[in-house]
């Protein structure tokens, strides 16, 4: 019997991948329909166990960017981003048709960063703080050209950098066209008249407004006071103004929008002179007066220029030499006229009338017949200046429009053959050229932003960098442009601190020969930047420092010396008056400190004070920033070389000053002579080196009054001398005592140990009156 035996196949083997580990590389930003094709085999024969029916990614989560189909084709479901993940590891298994699963195969997918041309690592924000010098705008710039992908053999790479400041008043941070500023800096004519007045908070009408003003196009106008302009505008003048004006609607464009207008004051509406905008043109009307030649001559000029309606700040200057010679300057650059631009219209002179009075108005035109304003301006105006009968020099206009902020490149020592930096005059742009992208990257890293204006306008500025690659075959590749922002912050308020020894001890001998007033003075300047105290002493400049005595100094007894040789090397002037000392001039803190530490105080009668108090104060930023008032007390101790006789002090009622004054009828002539030898050249010589009895009133007397005082003084001294001789005869001194009283410096002093002097109270009152007169009435100033 034949038996048919059917052998039923069993799934003996699991699928096996050809390799246990796969690695694939792909570029970011693309979707690949087939990243790779995985393949597994099964040793079982035939269907179903010998065939692979399914592939599966076992570690896939929600949102996983990869998928695999039943044929083993691996793909990405969305573009990959190199910055998010640089590689992925997949676990893949295969199933045969009997659903037996293979061992896992690991698949690594490396994501390559796509080549995106342009400049990388440009910071989004660069912070510039006024007073801290220049700042680099791209310190880590790196240029990527992708030249390899485009088959370009690089010959040169060029970048053009532009600083965009059109949103600022006057187009960029510049010194405003203020007559005083431009006169000092650029030599502007002194006869220039300001038509748009400065701020007057007390104004309640439209006669006076702020220098920067918005005109609404409906009712806003400014009447120029009659005393500012003498008569009608002549046939030779210069007019300068800054304007920001938008295009507006078609209806607004069709209207005359008056910037400046001179018209009849009463009875008529004739326009003698006018500047206005219409159809985005700048138009000027200049009618000759009735006494001019009766000829048909040019009377209206119409400039077609894009700046009029671009809603950006621009400066305009009109130089009117005659009806046949009119020049327009825009932002300091001369407008090049053509046959069609400007359009010029002719007219006859105005006819003669009795009333020749006119009115000059900003932002509208006065119609005298109806007594109303008309043709209002809509936009912003600032800095309107008028120079009659003269033409301003073109270099003054260019100078006044120079921007104080710019991008600059100063690393010329890094340029190699084939590289260059090209700058355009009066342009916010410049270009850098290098042989390779790497070399140009190094040059871009040296580009700086600087702003030399004392108080820069805070806010942001935008800069752009446009780069092109020139290939050897003549092809040019344009890279993606790069942009960044510069945020300008005003300089933080400076703080000046003065410190040092608050008590200085000197003896009388040292005061006679010169005692240092501020031997250990310290001056520091700090600024608070983002909550951190930054010391700025080494780069800061002071305007002045003063040392004031309290009370004021005795001009006949007290003097100061200064280091004349040191002062000669610095930009500092040394002055002294009754109050004390004044050092002035812009100089580094170090220079001021060195001078102050070497100033000496002299008193030819050292025992007249037992204590001297004085204060020190400094200033910077044109006097706006003041330091603390540092108080110093100088104690004048009794010299070891002086006599041991008791000193009688007469204290004033001022407890804070607490000065002790003595009346000493004797004066050490030899000591005074030595003092004069110690004083330096810039120290004024004393007015008198004779005895001083505090008769300050003598400086205010003249002629016979002086003679009377001198006679009285001599008589008083003779009487005192006689009394002294008689007293000495009654009470003779031992010779030993007399030898002991000899002055160590070689001078002779009066010995009053045995004398009692009665002082007349009336004489004391008279003396006090004389002292008072000396403080308040004397006008000689110590000369």
Q: Report strand %.
A: 35-45%
Name of the level-1 CATH class of the largest domain: Mainly Beta
- The computed structural class is mainly beta
Oligomer: single chain
Q: How far apart are the first and last residues' alpha carbons, in Å?
A: 156 Å
By CATH, the architecture of the largest domain is named: Sandwich
Largest sheet: 7 strands, mixed
Q: Kindly provide the radius of gyration, computed on alpha-carbon positions and rounded to a whole number of angstroms.
A: 45 Å
Which descriptor suits the 3D outline? flat
Number-wise, the strands total: 52
Low-confidence stretches: 198-211, 640-704, 732-783
Mean pLDDT: 79
Work out the helix count.
11
Helix content percent band: 10-25%
Classify the fold: give the CATH topology of the largest domain. Jelly Rolls
Tally of discrete structural domains: 5
Pfam family, one: CLSTN_C
Family: Belongs to the calsyntenin family.
Subcellular location: Endomembrane system; Synapse
Protein name: Cadherin domain-containing protein
Question: What does this entry look like structurally?
Answer:
With 783 residues, this protein is mainly β. The chain contains 11 helices and 52 strands. Helices cover 14% and strands 36% of the residues. Keywords: Calcium, Cell adhesion, Glycoprotein, Membrane, Repeat, Signal, Synapse, Transmembrane, Transmembrane helix.
